[in-house]
Amino acid sequence: MTLPGRDDPRLLLRALFAAALGAADPSRVVPPHLPPPPSGRTVVVGAGKAAAAMAKAVEDHWPGPLSGLVITRYGHGAPTRRIEVVEAGHPMPDAAGSEAARRILDSVRGLGADDLVLFLASGGGSALMALPAPGVSLEDKRAVTQALLRCGATIGEINSVRKHLSAIKGGRLAAAAAPARMVTLAISDVPGDDPAVIASGPTVPDPSTFAEARAILAKYAIAPPAAIAAHLAAAAEESPKPGDPRLARSTFITVATPQQALLAAAAVARGAGVTPLLLGDAIEGEAREAALVHAGIARQAAAGKLIVGERALPLPAVLLSGGETTVTVRGAGRGGRNAEFLLALAIALDGQPGLYALAADTDGIDGTEDNAGALYAPDTAARAAAAGLDLGARLAGNDGYGAFAALGDLLITGPTLTNVNDFRAILVLETEPATATRE
């Protein structure tokens, strides 16, 4: 079998990534789910890395009048005419996001039963729409956010804490909009596509509690600022829980998911004569540990010993996975979780022939750097050694970005204006010894 792109497997990996992004393109996924216009006003609000592109998609297909405001990350804006776009800080919240969140909350208050609030949710919305609860300062919230990001906490844990430090998350936005109808259109970036976790669930009931928020900080030995400790201990105003009548007219629609992105990539792989195997769209845990698992599966597939059903996975094949890994920061290097994953994978595979990989964040930004992720090839370790790069030392220092930048293997796309979280593809090609064995 001749594999299209065999001479340049990286080209195929990039095509798979492009297909995943296309499956979450707001201009494609938002319009089919727009509700009918109300008899009253339409107010569009939202937050996330895809918020501006989603707002543009609404404008381009909405038949009646509307107004609104959405918050997105710096550099992730899109040209809109009627919906204001505010750019703000991510992953660390800033004053621009906090002020815009206050304006969003004010804009939905006082609406009537004939009005519609359309909320556009996507990954990053929790940090971008940061409106601290009374008595909590933005600086205190930033300090806790930074500690949670550095300790390896999952996105679910981080958002449980955020919701209990917020005046808008955890169902509070929908409660403020009642009795207006609320429709949320969401691009999921979280494992399991839980509406209560996407952007910290500002329009859905919140099952988490103040007690759970306190337990998460204790689990990671995070000592919060005094004002936050006092706020969590007082537990004065819980977030709206399931059954709260204020949320009775709130509807949640997921318009794009990590699984849909992986399926789109799988379709492109099949078209290229490559067998796709989806390992899961909700993989969590330390990026370097996830890499070891993926490396083991890739080696098994390359050896013809990865059994699917009753036979070995046919080669060439591609292992696809998504989710949101984490990084416990130990060093002072540069690099997000996908660069860390790929660096650990490179060390584990150690130049084994026939294995190529791409790992990237679908928003185009891996952590806080300017790359989406990076690419790996069988010659990565050898080129690193020739360049005097110690990959083990780079991993110890959390410097995946620096390592792949030095090798010229960063994947740089710029902001993609969508976000279905991590995308990983490991291409497993037949090698000459394997072919000779079967003859």
Question: How would you sum up this structure, described in words?
Answer:
The protein has 439 residues and is of the alpha/beta class. The chain has 17 helices and 14 strands. The protein has a six-stranded parallel sheet with strand order 3-2-1-4-5-6, with helices on both faces. A six-stranded mixed sheet has the order 7-10-14-11-12-13, with helices on both faces. The protein starts with 8 loop residues before the first helix and ends with a helix. The relative contact order is 0.13.
The average pLDDT score comes to 94
Q: Provide the CATH architecture of the largest domain.
A: 3-Layer(aba) Sandwich
- Point out poorly predicted stretches: 1-5, 434-439
Assign an overall shape: globular
Enumerate how many helices there are, as a single number: 17
Structural class: alpha/beta
Quaternary status of these chains?
A: single chain
Q: Classify the helix fraction into a percent range.
A: 25-40%
- Tally of DSSP β-strands: 14
Describe this protein with a few key phrases.
17 helices, disordered N terminus, 6-stranded mixed beta sheet, Rossmann fold, alpha/beta, 439 residues, 6-stranded parallel beta sheet, glycerate kinase, domain 1
Provide a quick synopsis of the model.
This protein has 2 domains: 9-22 and 259-438, MOFRL domain (glycerate kinase, domain 1), CATH 3.40.1480; 34-256, Rossmann fold, CATH 3.40.50. Helices cover 38% and strands 18% of the residues.
